[in-house]
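Lay summary. Proteins are chains of building blocks that fold into shapes, and those shapes determine what they do. In this project we predict the shape from the chain. Here is one chain we studied, written as its sequence of building blocks.
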Amino acid sequence: MSEKAARCLGSMFQRISIAINAEKDRLSELDGAIGDADHGITMSLGFMAVNAELTKLDAAQALPSEIFAVAASAFLDAVGASTGPLYATAFRRASQALKADESLSPASQAMIVDEMRAGIQQRGKGQRGDKTMLDAWIPAAEAAIEARARSLEVAGMWSAILDAAETGADSTSSMVAARGRAARLGQRSLGHIDPGAASAVIILRAMKDTFVNDGAAAHP
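And here is the predicted shape, written in a compact code that computers can read:
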């Protein structure tokens, strides 16, 4: 079972990397309006590094918690900017939580989303409304927890997660940035979608595609 679960997560990180790479110009363009115009490049480099390290693992022996631990280290090594520690902490939190449930069950999937949210919030000290990636991650995590409470099936759970993330990311265009480089712009940050929230949606969409399409084979 752990081999199937490890392969599922390997596939997930590949999907994320491909999706981020395809959107990196759009992400950097969004960042250009309120930041350093390098968010797409940074995220692309980070996930390429993750996948390069994951190819060195033996999927037959690896546990899901190990996959996330490797991802945390690889992302941090590749991305020195603020995004690096945020996602490294997110992956590390997911890794720690998975040690108690390596099954990638629907409950475990919901836990991954919430632990990633917790890691980003722990490291970045942000909250909803700051015009950051948390404006996508917080509603996504809330949707995951609610879906599990209602015992939704995997497809329904991930649809709710992604819908919440997309709505959250879109809402950042009407916010004034309170954190990060964009905060220096004050009112001029209005009217622009936060690039971190936009990339969070891409990540969550790739996670949804993986768990809905491949995840059934990864857990009993």
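What the prediction tells us: The mean pLDDT is 90.
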